[in-house]
Amino acid sequence: MNEIGKHKIKIYDFPECGDDEEESRMLKRLKDRVPFAVVGSNTVIEVNGKRLRGRKYPWGVAEVENMEHCDFIALRNMLIRTHMQDLKDVTNNVHYENYRCKKLAAFTNDGKPVRISNNFCPQRILNTYMVFWNPLAQMEEEKKEHEQKMKKMEQEREQLFEQKVKEKFQKLADSEADLERRNEQMKKSLEAQRRELEEKRKAFEEEKTAFEAANKDEELVRRASVDVNMKDPDTKEKKKEKKKGLF
């Protein structure tokens, strides 16, 4: 840390956590580990029967999630669990504003940057960074951006709703047309089946009539033959005698 201060290297300044003793102890532990020595790895290795994420070297194994080997857990806790919002605020209110005001300062009459005092910025940040910030202008700009964003989102929602409604109507129209087409096809098919059955019925009736007429004629002939035989009972005997006489 002495070398970092000697060379005027700017690093993250941990904010004060208030009267919470637990957070104070955690902050002290984090500060004591600065600067962090982090080991990263996407390889899972087996150490003493346990599968761990780490790096294997000829002299041993460096475990990623072991506080005795590296500061990965401390860095992760700081970035995700304890100081994420403060880091975001510093990035937005300091680094971005420095960049923005530096660019805007190029439009001054003499072309020299202008330092704008900021009474709303925390003292710890003022002691560490050169801050250019006009809070009223920023609030007005953020308000306009928010209104434009909301208006754009509303237009997009309306367009999306109209598109969904059109798609729904088109889908219903397509379904109705498909049902009409199937209905017409079914009507034609049923009509064809009806005509076919009607033709078969007529053919059957004609065959039945012809069959009954043929059976009727045959029955008449048989009855006539029976009547003749009954009227002349000696005819058969005469015929038999005639045949015997010939032999």
Q: What would your notes on this structure say?
A:
The chain has 247 residues and is mainly alpha-helical. Helices cover 66% and strands 6% of the residues. It has helices at 2-6, 21-33, 72-82, 84-105, 123-126, 135-231, 235-246; strands at 44-47, 50-57, 60-63. A 3-stranded antiparallel beta sheet has the order 1-2-3, with no helix packed on it. The N and C termini lie far apart (156 Å). Residues 1-106 form the Septin-type G domain. GO terms for molecular function: GTP binding. InterPro entries: G_SEPTIN_dom, P-loop_NTPase. Residues 224-238 have a biased composition (Basic and acidic residues).
Order of helices and strands: HHEEEHHHHH
Question: Helical residue percent?
Answer: 55-70%
The overall average pLDDT, rounded, is: 76
Ends distance: 156 Å
Task: Please give the radius of gyration in angstroms.
Answer: 53 Å
Binned strand content:
5-15%
As an assembly, this protein is: single chain
In DSSP terms (H or I, runs of 4 or more residues), the helix count works out at 7
Sketch the major β-sheet: 3 strands, antiparallel
**Poorly predicted tracts of residues:** 111-120, 125-132
Q: Indicate the structural class.
A: mainly alpha
